[in-house]
């Protein structure tokens, strides 16, 4: 019996190692193919909406899909690493300066170019003022940035944008657009679609650090962010597309605005990195963060505005599509703009 127990241990350890490798390989495969997966989800949703234009049942699935995506996103945010992130104070200072000083100033300078429609102004402001906390880490890694430093900083980015977003909206929006962003629906959306998934993700992380079962569950859930994001994109596009006939003008109006942002924002990030004397890898991460926005995370806040559909979700999803195409350029161009000292 003693020999049998000794023999079983290596087998169990080997099985766990194989499981970890399989999960890691699945996650890496999803990360390599994530742009194709996202565009595939959008194309499939658009096709479904075209074939079945009367299909409205997916609208009821929007909030659950977003809640699942946000839980999966927050689960990858190392909440316990928040204190360690501030230990790299120059990187954190450059990241916060780029995202919460320079980028809002840039958006404020461009906002007079937006149409006066309050829904368009609210949607564009919401999406461009909030830095990404999820797939930006993957793209920074592909663009030879310091992905670990950016990942450790994501809790600070998330907390800062939630605290500052109401202030920026009040400063940047005209009275009509500000009136659309009512506090009550925004607070309800924040509580149930952001705060609750964040608290649940924090609980799972706590469980993971104190239990082998929790650690295993967390490893399994680590493959969820990209499929969950693709599902959210699918549901949102399928629900919004039948009403796009009323939002095409709005989308066409904001596309040039988003393209201009996509060109200038990474340069703003590189400028902030240079100001704080960051090395090339950290500078690339700041550039990716400045250029990549939190579109799907702020979407629940947008949908909480009265009369949001179809203009607000269409305006926000349009930025996502422009951004995904831009990321393919960034991973090649940003490493050349911020070259290694050697």
From TrEMBL:
Membrane topology per record: Multi-pass membrane protein
UniProt xrefs under Gene3D superfamilies: 1.20.1530.20
Keywords tagged on the record: Cell membrane, Membrane, Transmembrane, Transmembrane helix, Transport
UniProt keyword annotation of Transmembrane helix present: yes
Annotated InterPro entries: Arsenical-R_Acr3 (IPR004706), BilAc:Na_symport/Acr3 (IPR002657), Na+/solute_symporter_sf (IPR038770)
Organism for this UniProt entry: Methylocystis borbori
Keyword set includes Ion transport: no
Compartments, record wording: Cell membrane
Record family assignment: Belongs to the arsenical resistance-3 (ACR3) (TC 2.A.59) family.
Ranges that cross the membrane: 35-58, 64-82, 94-114, 120-142, 149-169, 189-208, 220-241, 253-276, 297-322
Protein name (record): Arsenic resistance protein
Origin superkingdom: Bacteria
